[in-house]
């Protein structure tokens, strides 16, 4: 079971995480909720190994991971399909990728350069990329940001279907999203 | 199409201005007319000597350019990776950018024969230009995309072709275009000083000695056209290669 033990992180005098400890339920979706600035993204960054904690220990995070970042982090000059293939390699055929894109309403977008997509379309591309990447732990940082309510509903269903059996750590400040997707919840306070 | 017409209109305008000034000056030594230059160029183009000179100079200038391109890129990449490399090469690159072509050329004449002078001078001119441009590109690489690559454990080749290449290509293209133009300028200047037999530089030098202004303009036009041709051709090949690599 992935576990965070006594994680501390400060930026200068500002304490962001103070002895954070949690056992993340294996194969389940855990939501990390809290107000803006309470350290949700910092926690995710530490769990992904991108930021070094000042102290504390991580257990069980040395598995293949995948993520939807707070920003889309797509290569703007590459096509939607090329962005996905960048992380999946040739594991999926062109038809497989097109099929996955259709599921989130991106029909016919596979060959389009990412720079030509709207914010919501980029978001869904980042979600499909994360879902198709080989992983056991999935990190989602505000993954449905910028999606309208109808699209959000179908994308949440897609994420639920594709992440079945994986450990998902999902950051959000939206209680409704949390209720729709999460099976477990941890709240961070300021 | 509209862009091509705009460029053509600009060229025609300046040719007319040139023709008017040439008629007003009325001296074939001080300024020949564009029509005389075209006529002289047509006469030269049908001679074997013209093509020998073109091949002689183009081969050496482009060799110097390619060596500069590879060296400049390698120094930039290593500088991005290892701080010590940047510390060591930074002053050298700054000095190389400021040294006049004539100084390089005269110094190089002590080291090598005049035949290969343009290779060395072009190399010395191109290296700092390419290095500076590529360093700017490497410095502006998106850290967030680098983190994304680490999270998804994207293999090195795919990371290069997908993440880095698309970000660095605009810098590489502008460095190449600038370096090709300067290669021809500096290469021809070096040849005028070194006067290697059969080079374009020799032809330019001779036109000065014999006051053949039409020859001077005709050879200069040939250099301009060659420089443009090399630039367009190189950028076209680079564009095709980039697409191929990204598809791999």
Q: What descriptive keywords fit this protein?
A:
A: 190 residues; Rossmann fold; globular; B: 248 residues; mainly alpha; MetI-like fold
CATH homologous superfamily descriptor of chain A: P-loop containing nucleotide triphosphate hydrolases
At the fourth level of CATH, the homologous superfamily of the largest domain in chain B is: MetI-like
Shape of chain B: globular
Helical coverage of chain A, percent range: 25-40%
State the helical fraction of chain B.
over 70%
First-to-last CA distance of chain A: 27 Å
Number of strands of chain A: 8
Structural class of chain B: mainly alpha
CATH architecture of chain A: 3-Layer(aba) Sandwich
Q: In angstroms, what is the radius of gyration of chain A?
A: 17 Å
Greatest interface and its participating residue counts:
A-B, 21 and 16 residues
What fold name stands as the CATH topology of chain A?
A: Rossmann fold
The amount of beta strand of chain A, in percent, is 25-35%
């Amino acid at each position: 079971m992935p576990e965070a033990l006594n994680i501390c992180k400060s930026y200068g005098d500002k304490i962001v995480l103070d002895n954070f400890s949690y056992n993340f339920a294996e194969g389940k979706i855990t939501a990390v909720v809290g107000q803006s600035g309470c350290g949700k993204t910092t926690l995710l960054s530490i769990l992904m190994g991108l930021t070094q904690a000042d102290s504390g220990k991580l257990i069980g995070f040395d598995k293949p991971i995948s993520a939807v970042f707070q920003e889309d982090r797509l290569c703007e000059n590459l096509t939607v399909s090329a962005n996905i293939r960048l992380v999946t390699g040739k594991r999926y055929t062109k038809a497989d990728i097109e099929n996955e894109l259709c599921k989130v309403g991106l029909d016919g977008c596979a060959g389009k350069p990412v720079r030509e997509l709207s914010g919501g379309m980029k978001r869904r591309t980042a979600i499909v990329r994360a879902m198709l990447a080989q992983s056991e732990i999935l990190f989602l940082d505000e993954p449905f940001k910028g999606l309208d309510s109808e699209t959000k509903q179908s994308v949440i269903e897609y994420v639920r279907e594709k992440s079945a059996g994986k450990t998902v750590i999902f950051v959000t400040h939206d209680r409704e999203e949390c209720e729709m997707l999460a099976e477990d919840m941890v709240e961070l306070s300021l | 199409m509209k862009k091509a017409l705009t460029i053509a209109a600009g060229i025609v305008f300046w040719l007319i201005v040139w023709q008017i000034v040439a008629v007003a000056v009325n001296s074939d030594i001080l300024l020949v007319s564009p029509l005389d230059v075209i006529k002289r160029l047509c006469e030269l183009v049908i001679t074997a000597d013209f093509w020998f000179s073109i091949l002689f100079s183009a081969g050496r200038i482009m060799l110097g350019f390619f060596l500069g391109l590879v060296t400049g890129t390698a120094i930039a990449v290593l500088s991005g990776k290892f701080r010590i490399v940047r510390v060591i090469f930074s002053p050298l690159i700054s000095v190389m950018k400021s040294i006049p072509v004539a100084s390089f050329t005269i110094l190089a004449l002590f080291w090598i024969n005049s035949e290969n002078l343009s290779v060395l001078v072009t190399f010395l001119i191109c290296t700092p230009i390419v290095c500076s441009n590529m360093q700017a590109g490497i410095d502006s690489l998106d850290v967030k995309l680098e983190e994304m690559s680490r999270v998804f454990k994207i293999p090195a080749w795919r990371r290069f072709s997908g993440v880095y290449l698309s970000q660095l290509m605009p810098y590489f293209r502008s460095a190449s275009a600038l370096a090709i133009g300067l290669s021809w300028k500096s290469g021809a200047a070096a040849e005028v000083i070194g006067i290697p037999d059969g080079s374009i530089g020799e032809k330019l030098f001779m036109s000065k000695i014999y006051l053949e202004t039409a020859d001077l303009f005709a050879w200069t036009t040939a250099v301009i056209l060659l420089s443009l041709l090399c630039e367009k051709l190189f950028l076209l090949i680079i564009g095709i290669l980039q697409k191929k690599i990204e598809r791999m």
